[in-house]
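Why do we bother with holo predictions? Because pocket geometry can differ from the apo form. Keep that in mind while you read this record for 5'-deoxyadenosine.
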Amino acid sequence: MTKARVVPEEQIRRQMDFIDFIGHMNRDKTEKNGEKCKAFTHTYGCQQNEADTQKIAGMLRDMGYEMTEDAKQADVIVLNTCAVRENAENRVLGNVGALAHLKKQKPGLTIALCGCMVQQEHMAEKVKKSYPQVDLVFGTHALWRFPELLYRTLTGDRRVFDISGDAEGEIAEGLPVLRDGKAHAWLSIMYGCNNFCTYCIVPYVRGRERSRRPEAIEAELRELVAAGYRDITLLGQNVNSYGKDLDLEIDFSDLLRRLNGVEGDFLLRFMTSHPKDASHKLFDTMAQCGKVAKQLHLPFQSGSDTVLRRMNRGYTAEQYQALIAYARSRMPGLVVSSDIIVGFPGETAEDFEGTLRVVRDTGFDMLYTFQYSKRSGTPAADYDDPTPQAEKQARFERLLALQDQCAEPRMLAYQGKRLRVLVDGESRHAEYPYTARTDGNLLVYCAGERLKVGEFADIVIEKAALRSLYGRQQEA
Ligand code: 5AD
Ligand code: SF4
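The structure, written out:
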């Protein structure tokens, strides 16, 4: 198998030169106007996109921009887009439409779109034709060239579009990152996806699976721990195939074990896993590694074997349930979440009953439920889809109601329990002024005199709601 191309260091250094050029330009502007140049970023979609935005923000910071949360104040606006469902795309286009007005008031404003939505040629074309307020468009493969692309946009008199890059993809190391929050950090371990589930656009816009070298991942983890991050999520579209493309004998379980050996008090999470590659070895490793959170996000998408086959998922509902049963046998109290698609083309009432059955039998702590959205270019876009939208909506609502019903006793069971949580922010609750996360990533509103953001604390759960818990710190 071919190894993913790592972007040569001199090319990354060249980007750093562009960061410096823009930095000089911004300093001149600041001297003239007496005000720092400002940048605004917004992320649509998944955690991988959030991690990418943090790289863009890191580059912007190094160019001398001050980050602002008010788009109206910004000199540069970067929207990192998502293509997974149509409503995500519609939201992006709606927001870009609204920016036309701002651009009129402030002609010096630079508007950039990047990420999965614009990596699709038809979307880049649409933006070129119908959204003249957008100055710069770059796809997922061009992320590391952002400094050069922005420089060309700022100094040239033409709009810049770059959605080049082949599907094999590359790995860019050494880009600056601006993380938000003090407790939690994303750590990408691989990029792309090879699974080609028939509904999914991701493999087309993010390219083939490519794993970062374990030493690069470990070095970044050490930096994060040294900087005080305590809750670190390893990211990949399908982390279970980590290492398959490397010239090393290493799989995801081996990587977890290696990272678990890094000194310090921190929690390791990971997402997303694919049931077809999740192995007993992985669950044994999780059970044995003290720093690995006892939390598993394992999307099953549908409880019907017919639908699973047509989705190209590579497992049956029974195999999925057996996996969860094994994971729970190794890790009692494991927090389990999943993704489900309702209304896949041709899903029958009976197929849907299968999904309800898996939900009822498995008992998930959290479910992320989606209505199927047709993505052009994917195989499922050509499948017959006779089910009326009203019927799909009714199924969707039944699923939500069932999940609420199942989650209630699971959440109530936490009352009175003592848990270790990581305090990660302040809340708007007067009585419970902090937010925290359990080992299983459940949200807890917390009270306690000695709580501190970024630190672990022992709390007792006082109340439970459907999607969150309420707890109080224990006396030392
Ligand atoms: N329509 C609806 N949901 C989708 N997902 C991916 N593609 C689609 C689509 N075309 C969901 C899957 C995946 C999650 C990230 O998004 O459930 O696990
Ligand atoms: Fe999409 Fe399937 Fe890859 Fe997930 S595993 S990103 S659903 S193709």
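The longest strand covers residues 418-426.
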